[in-house]
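Sorry, can you check?
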Amino acid sequence: MSGKVRLDIDGAIATITNDNPEKKNAFTDDMDAQLFAVLSELRQRKDVRAIIWRGDGTAWSSGRDVGSIGNSAGEMTHHELMNRGHEGILRIFDLDAPIIVPFHGWAIGGSFQRALLCDIRIAAEGTRFMLPEVTHGVIPDTGGVARLFQMCGHGVVSDMVLTGRVMPAEEALSHGVISRIVPVDQLDATAREMAEKIAAAPQATVKMARKVIQHLSEQEVRTSMADENVFQTFINKSEDYAEFRAARAENRAPKYSGS
């Protein structure tokens, strides 16, 4: 099994760690299943008051390990795979404890989108963010685009999604995608300090404050994910996507029909 997602609990603080450093923490199907199981476990842990979701190695996560897609999915259809992914990551909304994400290196694609569904994001100096899905012939489909739209607005999201361009940490801070930039060697300590401050507050108060914030944005995320499910399924069966893949395999210019 390539890569894993670790869960460590220290008092009232839980730490989720992306542990596939050889591939810059690119997620495999197995890691997806592990992450969803961790989120389910944390939903039952009333003693956990704050969660940190970090990454080992040189990147928080470089997105999807494309070589692993479907390897452990059995006979599941593409639509069923998407449903499984949506159901799994939406468990974030069922947690009582907020999640702090300390980014470093790269945060790309579906992994970046998942982090956007969390509560607080900070970043080490030099962190970069990217949504390259369209350049691979598909669309972002993990719900994070809705949250990014709420933060950045139509123009910035369209630029990132349609061109796949990189957003540096300084720009991410200016749009509110992250709330702090810290030196790399202070990233984990800063996240821990934030988690300890949250864990020290009255648990019911933190829970209710989080619910108020969630209610401002959660429905739009769920609506966007429903659209993503339908449209990504269409793309997967479209003539243009088949042509995209064939042109790449044959090293030629594609001829798209728009269907």
In short: Residues 218-236 form the longest helix (19 residues).
